[in-house]
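note to self: dont lose this again. the chain is below, predicted strucutre after it. 175 aa total, dont forget to put it in the shared folder this time
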Amino acid sequence: IKPCPKCGESFCPNYNYIKEELCCNESYLMLDPACTRIYGISNAFGSDEILNYFDLITKKLVKTSLAVPLYCKLVQLQNRIFVTGGNIINTVSEYIEATKTLKTKAPMKYARYQHAIVLIAKTSFCVIGGFGGGHRKECEEYDITTNTWKSFPSLTESKYYCLLYTSPSPRDATL
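---
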């Protein structure tokens, strides 16, 4: 375990989601001027995962006790946090900071886990691939203003355990 040279926060080189050299790097942390936290999950090894966040003001990792489904994915859009899927489920929840609870949202059409998420508009994101009754190539778009899902063009082949990168222009997403 190595500490950050600036703030002293400890990081495990095998299981961290913010690399130690990026901990206090101001250019890395300036993802969104209104954003003060970067959310992530940690695994409790064999049980549900736990929602955590990195506070950009204090530069500290904050561990919550809120359980989220094993193998789910998180996405942050307009300072709202959405938890999608998990161990062969199609559930979607929004994390409510004020109450530190999850609010159920419209479910995805397909159950999935180990999928990818990409922001595709100011009010929507797309879930892509994953596992769930086999390898998935189906994609779905969620609109946070209407709490609705709609079909999105499927992949030509199934993808899972994948990551997506979105450039400043969401149309340039790369799988």
